[in-house]
Write a structure and sequence with these properties.
Belongs to the IFRD family. The chain is mainly α and 218 residues long. It is 76% helix and 0% strand.
């Protein structure tokens, strides 16, 4: 049942599973409004501790349908879908390279081809979060960091996406050897981080400062 007095809904394990089942049925609906509501239901349901067990053999099917929303929906639906993919990664946890592989192309498509800066930023954050949590391969972390670099160095990248790309680059850096950061990243990225400290957008300046600090401290 829902919370009393208009507060946030609190669901039992049984209710959370029922909510997730209902959302999974609705997420393939032709109506964008119905799909959006289903994504919100999924986000609520995934807060329950029972979801770790529930998702153990269903995460791939859930991610597949959610990614369909990321690809075909308008910006709000696409952003919600990316958020639910990241929640899926948090729910299933480490050592799920198959989930990482399945989300790569759809989320990169959303970053590269999306029409909204907010939706593109959500897709990139979800892409890197999923890889950071679920991947067992250092090479994947390097690949994601390189992808973030491509995004934040592109002059056409909108500010909201640029700031997210910098933050995601920093997240990847925390999982890489400090010698690599000190050597390779100092040569290839430090000038770009310094230049972005003069950027008109505060979020970009802040994220660039964080990235520069990581390189200096390595």
């Amino acid at each position: 049942g829902g919370g009393a007095g208009g507060g946030p809904a609190v669901y039992s394990d049984v209710d959370s599973v029922a909510l997730m089942e209902e959302a999974r049925d609705s997420i393939v609906d032709k109506s964008a409004g119905t799909r959006e509501k289903a994504l919100r239901q999924m986000a609520v349901a995934m807060k329950a501790s029972v979801m770790e067990e529930y998702m153990a053999d269903k995460y791939d099917a859930v991610a597949y349908n959610v990614l369909g929303c990321a690809k075909r929906g308008k910006w709000r639906e696409s952003a919600l879908a990316s958020h639910v993919v990241a929640l899926t990664a948090m729910t299933v946890g480490v050592e799920h390279d198959d989930l990482v592989a399945s989300v790569q192309e759809p989320l990169k498509f959303a970053v590269d081809r999306g029409k909204s800066a907010e939706a593109k930023a959500c897709a990139l954050k979800s892409l890197v979060t999923t890889g950071f949590i679920c991947s067992t391969e250092d090479s994947h972390t390097l690949e994601m960091q390189d992808y973030c670099e491509t995004v934040f160095k592109n002059k056409r990248t909108p500010d909201a996406l640029r700031a997210t790309a910098l933050s995601c680059w920093a997240l990847c850096a925390t999982a890489l050897p400090s010698a690599y950061i000190a050597d390779e990243c100092k040569k290839t990225n430090l000038p770009a981080f310094r230049a972005m400290l003069e950027h008109p957008d505060l979020a970009v300046r802040t994220a660039a400062g964080d990235c520069g600090a990581i390189v200096y401290d390595a």
